[in-house]
Amino acid sequence: MKIVVNWALCEGNGKCEEEAPELFELDDEDELTVLNETPPEELRAKAEAAVRLCPKNALSIEG
Ligand code: SF4
């Protein structure tokens, strides 16, 4: 599984971090960092929830 961010769409509102803080982190300037781009299967449900809840549809999962 690989988390892909469409950086052109991400507006740094942090919904993904709220849903999956193991995977996403926003800094003080609302710049997103993906903490783990290839997370283990145990985190798939959280990753999928973040994809679903991203209001900009900026996230996707490959694999
Ligand atoms: S929820 Fe979507 S738009 Fe918001 S910070 Fe995360 S990837 Fe960016």
Give structural notes:
The chain has helices at about 15-20, 45-55, and strands at about 1-5, 25, 30-35, 60. The chain has about 60 residues and is of the alpha+beta class. It has a single domain (about 1-60), classed as Alpha-Beta Plaits (2-Layer Sandwich), CATH 3.30.70.20. A two-stranded antiparallel sheet has the order 1-4. Strand 2 (about 25) and strand 3 (about 30-35) form a beta hairpin. The longest helix has 10 residues, at about 45-55. It binds iron/sulfur cluster. Iron/sulfur cluster (SF4) binds next to helix 1.
Defining key terms:
63 residues, 2 helices, globular, binds iron/sulfur cluster
Mean pLDDT: 97
Bound molecules: iron/sulfur cluster
Low-confidence stretches: none
Number of strands: 4
Number of DSSP helices?
A: 2
**What would you call the structural class?**
alpha+beta
Radius of gyration, CA atoms, in whole angstroms: 10 Å
- The order of strands across the largest sheet is 1-4
Strand content: 15-25%
Which series of helices and strands comes N to C?
EHEEHE
